[in-house]
Amino acid sequence: MTASVTKAARSGRDEQPEYRLAREPDGRSWTVRENLADILERELLGPANGPDELLHGTPDSAYLVGRIAPVRLTAGRDDPTDADDPEVATDVGDAVDAEEARGVPVTVVDESSAAADEDSVEDTPQQRGLMIPASMGLRFQIPADLDTFTVLASWGTYHPVKDERPDAPRSRRYQRTPVEVPTTVTVADLVAGVTKPYPLHDKVVLRVDRYDDAERGWVMADQRIQTQVAEHRAKRPKLSIDDARAAVLADKGAGAHSWRTFQLAFILTQLPLLTDPAAPKRSGDLANAQLLFFPTGGGKTEAYLGLAAYTFAVRRRQGVVETPDGPLDGRSGVAVLMRYTLRLLTSQQFQRATALICAAEIARQADPATWGDEPFRIGLWVGPT
Q: Which pTM value belongs to this model?
C-alpha cells in the first residue's frame, strides 16, 4: 500500500493525479483510523484539493457540511434566482420568504417547519425555500484562573471565475480563498449571560457567551426552560440569557417546565423496566417494544426524553448490576439510541436531546460523588440507514 491513491474527478472537483494520505501506512489500526478521519473531513467539509483549490461546479455540490450564509438578505425584494441562470428550475420561495428568513434560499424544498417545542412535522405541508444556516457554534471549558484565550477561526470563501479555455464546459468554476483570523479574548471582558461580538472579516462575526458553573436542579426542567430560552433569544437576539430566562418564567411560570398527565403516565409505566435490566418484560420471552402514541404536538418528545433522563440517573446510581447474562456496568457506555429519518426533524430533535444532555452534565459536575466522573455525552450519526 502506498501513501497516495489516484482519485478521479467527482462531485464537481477537478481531476487530481494523487490523493495524498495524511500519514504513511504502517500496519497499525491507529494510522488507518487517522487517515480515514482525514479523508472524511476533506470529502465532506473540504478542501479536498488544498486551501486554494479550484472547483468545477458549485461548492455545495462538492461538500455536504460546513456551509453557512449571511444572516439576512439585503439585496432587495426581487424574487431569488440562481446565480448562473435567470430561470430557476426548482421552487426556492419568493422575495418575502427570502427577506423574512435567516440565511439564503437554495434550490431544494424543505421537508418540515415544526417549531422547536412541537412534534408537528408529520402533519405540516412542505414549505418553500430551505434556508442555509447562518451560524455554527462550539462550546468548551477553560480553567477558572485563565486570563485570556485565543480563537483561531479559519474558513474558505468561493468565488465564481470564468474558464477561458475554448473547449471549457458552460458550468462555472469556483476559486477558493482561504481566510484565517486569530482573536484574543480577555475573560474579564466577558459577562455571564451577555453575548460579546468580535468582528473577524467582512461580515463574519465571532460571538462569545460566558457560562459560569452554578448549582442547578436535576428534575428535565432545565431542558424545557433552556429550549424555550433559546427560542426566545432567536426572536430577540439582543436579549441576555438571564433576561430571556426571566421572561420565559414570567410568561409561563411553572408551566414552562411542567408535565402533562399522559407524559407522567407513560414514564411511570416504564420505570420498573428501566430500573431492572433482568425484568421478564425487558429481557425475557415477554420482551417487546413499548409504543407511545399521542396526537401531533402533544409532547411525545419530552415524554421519552424524561425516560432518557431517568435512564442516565439510574445507571449511574446502580453502577454494576448482576443479570442472568452477566454483569452490566451502567457507569459508562451507550445508554440511549434515538433514530430519525434523514430530514430537518433530525436536527430539531438532536437540539432538544442536547439540551437534556447539557442539563445532565451540569448536574453531574455539581455532584460528581453522586453521578460519577464520566461526563454525559451525545453524538449524531447522519447517513444512510
A: 0.48
